[in-house]
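Protocol step 4 of 6: structure prediction from sequence.
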Amino acid sequence: MKTQSYFLVQRIQGGIRYGLMSFWALLTLSPLWILLVNSFKPQTRIVDNPIAPPVQLDFQYISNALGQLQFLKSIGFTLLITFFAVVLIVLLSSMTAWILVRSKLKIAGFIFMAFVAAMLIPFQAIMYPLIQLFDAIGLKNLGGLILMYGGFGLSMSMFLYHGFVKSVPLEVEEAAFIDGAHIVQMFFLIVMPLLKSITVTVIIINAMWIWNDYLLPFLVIGNSENKTLVLSLYFAQILAGQYGNPWQLIFPAVLVTITPIVVVFLFLQKFIVKGISAGAVKG
């Protein structure tokens, strides 16, 4: 009798737990549902019932959003910035972490803590002095924007690499050195391939942040001819907003803006968990 009561209590607790989890999942996904269904509806239907599914899938609103955003031009410019910024972050943070881990100098620990402390400084505290400095030296442009992203992404990425580099056997590097490999060959041919999982994690985290960033491109590029997707979305809404709230533009424009990076994330999300957890355990 006690055993039956125990299993009954367990089932009730399990049912409550799964019910709460299901409710939380639906609550979390509800903004995505609202975004998706309203991307295929006219303005009047969006205002009348924003959570109702569309009567029919009308892709003219998606097509209109692509035109308003100058999608191909904007996504090309965004890809350019994201690619070079992520490459810069990966190269600098991985090499820095490797040197700090292998260094026997006491200052290496101090430098590492300085990088960690830099993660605590909010961007808003330094954005205006930084923009003024880059403007004064002639780098308030595409190149300067990539350098800024490289600097802001360096601390977190180096921290992730630092924990993972400790798991790389020193004997492997010593064997490569004995075989005649110089330091550049040792890093790129021996060490870097062993950091593949954490490198994928660093790439995904920084690519998502740079792709979705609005404030830094707005401060550096502004309303120039070449804009990122997020900037194009902002200025398209401002232009259309002169005649009211352009919901039939906003929803499909947001959808086409986030879709590329969401697809990449869904395919590579397992590497994020794997890389971060491995770096934490091995660090």
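Step 5 (inspection) to follow. The mean pLDDT is 85.
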